[in-house]
Write a structure and sequence with these properties.
By secondary structure, the chain is of the alpha+beta class. It is built from 3 helices and 6 strands. The protein has helices at about 25-30, 35-40, 60-85, and strands at about 1-5, 10, 15-20, 25, 45-50, 55-60. A 4-stranded mixed sheet has the order 1-4-5-6. Residues about 5-15 have low confidence and may be disordered. This is Antitoxin.
Length: about 100
């Protein structure tokens, strides 16, 4: 495994993109001993590379759950912000009566 730090990678449009994982490994090495690689990565995300490009990220179930929750929170935040702009059509209610 190698630590990629803040190195970027090039996409087809020659735009630099930062990897979200500090640890990366080639697809070949990942296939050879995936159980050991998963153990060594621990709770950290791991970028698996194919031809020096990120093919996929391996994350723990806990991190995946946190990512899904964060995405849901961002979607809800957008809905709340939109609804806050609709104050003219809002109806005041007493939460204790609901």
């Amino acid at each position: 495994m190698r630590r990629s730090g803040n190195h970027g990678e090039q996409d087809n449009h020659l735009t630099t993109i930062k990897r979200i994982a500090d640890i990366s490994i080639s697809m070949s090495d990942f296939k050879k001993n995936s159980a050991q690689i998963l153990h060594e990565a621990g709770d950290k995300p791991l970028a698996v590379l194919s031809h020096n490009r990120t093919a996929f990220y391996m994350v723990t179930p806990g991190l995946f759950g946190a990512l899904v929750e964060e995405l849901a929170n961002r979607e809800l935040e957008a809905i709340v912000r939109k609804r806050l702009t609709l104050k003219d059509t809002s109806v005041e209610v007493n939460i204790d009566l609901i």
